[in-house]
Design goal:
The chain is mainly beta and 1105 residues long. The N and C termini lie far apart (85 Å).
């Protein structure tokens, strides 16, 4: 438990008297009560207020030693359920001590040492914001200054329209203060009547008997008839004396509440007294003190006003001390009851906060004088929200006989605050369904700037210290109020919660008229989409009721899609037409609203238990099976946490795992020690490399000082038949390659360091076929290194490119000559291919910067490998080094940039491979071998995808699931076709060991050749006619030497395209219209001939220029 004992958390409770803003000689607050403390006692402790004891013996002992004379709940009407966070308002108690004690701080310390005391606060003496009236100003100038005269013209009150009146309802302002003379002739008709206490059912709770107003005898029954926690609270309450009458009676010193009430809602247009901005809004009196100018129970009164139903609460009192419990109470009232709270900023003439005005969720009001002038006697501070007239404000005052003055001018922020409270209440009568934030925003956003906002007081700048300006009630009423509606949820009425392509689905959209937005009515919603595969059967929904500020509403639509509709989140638009809702006078009208919001409706099939929402995936998801049973798992990380999930989204035993530092690598997995169970390997920003057991326990932690980058690679480097771990660490200028065995010991020759940023990770393979592997890695700056298992550079390395390197290297035998090649992508758009000895093999200029990993596959099944990658011009490439051409139908536009490595699998068991790529805007493309789109793709989403998806059969139903990590969630997309099983580049870096090696010996043709019967066949070239290139397809029944030769019409040899040993199967070769010397040939008829062993066939083609 954290104990806090400083002012503001302690929490020193500062007592309130009605003089907190009274200007004494010193201009200071009156300090704290010396015989009171407020303490928070934990819920488990039972408190007996009568015996002054609790169930905590140590607390009882302290009570006895300290001379506690009284224990009382601070907020006796607070229900046990009233809480803000984990703070329960009913657990605050006021502790009275029998004698004033100058050493209360010592008692604070003693209380805080007890386990069951969470908070201790001094109680400040709080005063009202009033000053002696020194000057007299023209009556009611303030109403003209806030444009109330203009506002009143909106009502035709000569013909019965009354400002502040709502049919069958009312707006109530709670006057939390000292006394309220509710029978004042200029207030009586505007006094709130609590009809909930009308026991005799005559429609009123007061009667005029013997020339005076009294409580209705038929209603006085000492019963809480309305269940609000107060007995016979007909017009309000006196929380200080705990009785039901807030009237000051004969104590005219308690005049402050009556003065304040007249500023809020003195009866207007009644031929007597003063006018008010509230005109006819209702007044609830909450008296909070006994000995003026002290106000002893201000926050008890605040809660009482909220519980009795006040819409607006005025607080013309304050203290210079921030108290946590008071802020908690205010937050609770604002959130639970929706009250608008208004308070005066104080009269000390200083730049300092005053409370409650400076608390959050309170409108803080400072004062202006005539001619919109700030006279520097009120407080000014950055927490001030608005100003209103506060000098010489004529208002109602208590009296005992009719020959006494019933009105007097008053000066102080105590009287600017209720003017704003009355304006808020008047606004509430016009927008009865507007919430507190809406009303506050209208009041503040329409305030009129005054010149003194750029002035100063004795050299102290007023810039930013007077809030938004001076109250302008006319503009607040007439400004077109803001409307903001958004869709909070999309529900599809289907078993999986997703719309199914080829089906008819009901779409239910939950919308919210946001907190602070205008109430609306006559709402018409129309649904549309630009997707041509979707038909909206029922495209309109009408809301027949008022939608208040902050309220939800729903609209349902019926849509029909065809079988080719894309999976994912399909964009739709909702056009909104709505009218402003309110209780409008005849002089007030508003424009209707026309708006459009964008939504996305989910289509397709997702796994049960997914997506995992509200989580940012920070690396490639890993699909693996650490347990070796029938179901695989998904592992991914977010910041420092590793999360493991099974089928249906269940947590893997032992996960999540917290590494305590940001995880900075992709996850790898493998059986490090050969015991049959897999381990999970990753690195962190603080230099730790972790290996976890399948149950999330620590297998190993290896610590070095630099941040680990890229991804760990698993490979048997030292020839011990167990996996070693290769990883790279990086500081500002130096990169280090580490190789450790499964026991956490360095392999001989390592670590080895290089200058530069080698943050792409490594690839590992036996480059030179000597039986020992090499490690290949590259730097951002263009250096490529190849290191043998002893930690030595091999001959021919390092290489230095003329461009920055943008990808990890990939290793494969792409020309079927038994030797491996190194493939690297660069930012200059070149694909560089090197032989195992570092010599250049080929270079391909793609046209855009290469921005993804490099994957390998034989997409067209001709026995020749293609390199598949993305470029920053939004293209997905499939380039065949042997023919030096992209495959027919490639490159493919994916309409946005992809930085993820293409994943290649036979996704539908058609014996052909498909390519999966994801874009940074969240779309997922599946492209067939011929460049066409896979059915129902792209998968559309607006969740950014930065990391390569994974794929596998998560639920054991023999079809694939695509696992996608985004900035917002982890998705699992179910593909309903049977999954193909051929070897392919099906995971980031080719395998879960992340070694970046593609074994062509396991490719589809080599793996499945015995299952397919081939024959000699020479296919038609395509295109034909052509210019400048064409492709020639042919099939051979077994491994043999084959030649393909081009002849002209005279039978002369033009060029030999191929003459070498080829494997059994389909093959494809390109001719670029040139001869054996590289010169372009002329237009005309040419022949191409296929020869192999006992077979020969010739076809004709036409070159046109």
């Amino acid at each position: 438990m954290i104990k806090m004992n400083h002012i503001g958390y302690r929490i020193k409770l500062f007592t309130f008297t009605l003089t907190s803003f009274l200007m004494f000689e010193s201009g200071k607050s009156q300090g704290f009560h010396n015989n009171l403390l407020k303490i928070y006692i934990e819920k488990k402790v039972v408190v007996n207020e009568f015996t002054l004891t609790t169930s905590d013996e140590m607390l009882n002992e302290l009570f006895q030693n300290a001379g506690v004379s009284k224990i009382k709940k601070w907020l006796p009407t607070a229900k046990e359920s009233y809480s803000y966070g984990n703070i329960y308002l009913s657990r605050y108690y006021i502790i009275n001590f029998s004698k004033p004690d100058k050493k209360l701080d010592d008692l604070v310390t003693s209380f805080l040492e007890l386990d069951n005391i969470r908070v201790v606060e001094h109680i400040p003496i709080t005063t009202i914001n009033d000053v002696p009236n020194d000057e007299y100003w023209q009556q009611l100038y303030g109403l003209r200054q806030i444009y109330a005269e203009n506002a009143f013209t909106l009502w035709d009150y000569e013909n019965g329209e009354i400002p502040g009146f709502i049919p069958n309802d009312e707006v109530v302002v709670g006057i939390v203060d000292l006394g309220l003379m509710w029978d004042h002739p200029d207030l009586i008709d505007n006094i709130w009547r609590n009809i909930g206490e009308d026991a005799d059912g005559d429609g009123d709770v007061i009667e005029y008997i013997d020339n005076e107003w009294v409580f209705d005898p038929g209603d006085t029954n000492s019963i809480d008839d309305d269940g609000d926690g107060f007995i016979d609270n007909f017009l309000g309450y006196n929380v200080a004396l705990e009785h039901n009458d807030p009237h000051p009676r004969q104590n005219l010193i308690m005049d402050h509440g009556t003065l304040v009430a007249g500023c809020v809602s003195a009866m207007t247009n009644n031929e007597i007294g003063v006018s008010s901005v509230g005109w006819s809004v209702k007044l609830m009196g909450i008296s909070c003190g006994q000995d003026p100018p002290s106000i002893s129970h201000p926050y008890e009164g605040l809660l009482a006003a909220a519980q009795m139903g006040a819409d607006v609460i005025n607080m013309s009192f304050g203290s210079t001390s921030w108290i946590e419990s008071n802020q908690v109470l205010i937050n609770f009232i604002n959130e639970e009851f929706g009250c608008v709270l208004v308070a005066s900023s104080g009269n000390s003439g200083v730049q300092e906060p005053n409370y409650p005005a400076s608390y959050d969720n309170v409108i803080s009001v400072t004062a202006t004088g005539p001619n919109n002038h700030f006279d520097c006697w009120p407080n000014f501070h950055e927490t001030v929200d608005i100003s209103a007239p506060g000098s010489d404000i004529w208002t109602t005052t208590p009296f005992t006989t009719m020959d006494q003055d019933m009105y007097e001018p008053a000066t102080g922020t105590s009287f600017s605050s209720p003017i704003v409270a009355g304006a808020v209440a008047l606004l509430k009568t016009v927008f009865p369904d507007g919430d507190s934030k809406f009303l506050e925003s209208l009041i503040l956003n329409t305030a009129s700037p005054i010149d003194d906002m750029n002035g100063d007081c004795d050299g102290q700048s007023l810039e930013g210290m007077l809030g938004e300006g001076q109250l302008n009630i006319y503009d607040a009423l007439t400004m077109q109020p803001p409307m903001e509606v958004y869709a909070s949820d999309i529900y599809v009425d289907s078993p999986g919660g997703l719309a199914i392509p080829g089906d008819t689905n009901e779409i239910i959209i939950s919308l919210v008229n946001l907190t602070g937005s205008v109430p609306i009515e006559d709402v018409v919603l129309q649904l549309s989409t630009n997707d041509s595969t979707i038909t909206i059967i029922n495209d309109e929904h009408i809301i027949g009721t008022v939608v208040p500020s902050g309220n939800d509403f729903q609209a349902d639509f019926l849509i029909e899609s065809d079988e080719m509709t894309s999976f994912g989140d399909i964009p739709f638009s909702i056009n909104i037409n709505a009218s402003v809702s309110g209780n409008f006078p005849s002089g007030l009208e508003f424009d209707s609203y026309v708006d459009q919001i964008e939504i996305r409706v989910p289509f397709g099939f997702e796994q049960d238990g997914y997506p995992i929402e509200d989580i940012a995936v920070k690396s490639e998801p890993l699909f693996t099976n650490l347990y070796g049973n029938s179901f695989s798992q998904i592992y991914f990380n977010t910041d420092s946490i590793i999360i493991g999930k099974w089928i249906s989204g269940f947590d893997v035993l032992g996960f999540p795992f917290d590494a305590g530092s940001n995880i900075t690598t992709t996850l790898s997995s493998g059986d490090l020690d050969g015991d049959g169970d897999g381990e999970l390997i990753f690195g962190t920003g603080n230099g730790s490399l972790y290996a976890l057991n399948k149950d999330g326990t620590l297998y190993m932690e290896f610590v070095q000082i630099d941040s680990i980058v890229g991804y760990p690679v698993l490979y048997d480097i030292d020839g011990t038949n167990t996996l070693d771990i290769i990883f790279i660490s990086l500081n500002d200028t130096v990169s280090t390659i580490h190789v450790i065995n499964h026991n956490g010991e360095y392999v001989n020759g390592f670590p080895i360091s290089f200058n530069g940023k080698f943050n792409h990770g490594s690839s590992v393979a036996d480059l030179n076929l000597d039986g020992m592997p090499e490690i290949i890695t590259s730097s951002n700056e263009g250096m490529v290194v190849a290191i043998n298992s002893a930690g030595e550079l091999i001959p021919g390395f390092p290489l230095t490119l003329s461009s920055d390197i943008s990808t990890s290297s990939t290793i494969a035998n792409i020309d079927i000559d038994d030797e491996l090649e190194i493939i690297i992508g660069a930012t200059d758009g070149n694909l560089y291919i090197f032989n195992h000895d570092g010599s250049s093999f080929q270079t391909f200029l793609s046209g855009g910067a290469i921005c993804s990993g490099l994957s390998i596959a034989d997409l067209d099944q001709d026995g020749l490998m293609e390199i598949v990658f993305n470029t920053n011009d939004n293209l997905l490439h499939a380039w065949e080094p042997e023919s030096q051409m992209e495959l027919d139908g490639w490159p493919v536009s994916i309409h946005n940039q992809s930085i993820t490595e293409p994943i290649i699998v036979d996704i539908n068991n058609d014996l052909m491979l498909e390519v999966i790529s994801a874009t940074i805007i969240g779309d997922i493309y599946i492209t067939k071998h011929d460049g066409s789109s896979f059915e129902n793709f792209p998968f559309l989403s607006d969740d950014s995808i930065q990391y390569t998806p994974a794929i596998g059969d998560l639920d054991g139903d023999s079809d694939y699931e695509i696992i996608v990590g985004t900035k917002n969630n982890l998705k699992v997309i179910d593909i309903l076709d049977d999954a193909g099983a051929q070897y392919s580049w099906s995971v980031f870096r080719g395998n879960t060991h992340r070694n970046g090696f593609y074994d062509t010996a396991q490719s589809y043709l080599n793996n499945r050749v015995s299952e397919i019967a081939f024959e000699f066949k020479l296919g038609k070239n395509y295109p034909n006619p052509f210019n400048p290139s064409t492709r020639i397809n042919f099939t051979i029944p077994n491994k043999m030497n084959v030649s393909v030769v081009i002849y002209d019409i005279m039978g002369r040899r033009v060029k030999t395209l191929i003459d070498r040993l080829l494997i059994q199967g389909n093959h494809n070769i390109a001719w670029h219209g040139n001869d054996q010397y590289g010169s372009n040939v002329s237009s005309g008829i040419y022949f191409y001939e296929l020869r192999g062993e006992d077979f020969g066939q010739t076809r004709k083609m036409l070159l046109i220029k």
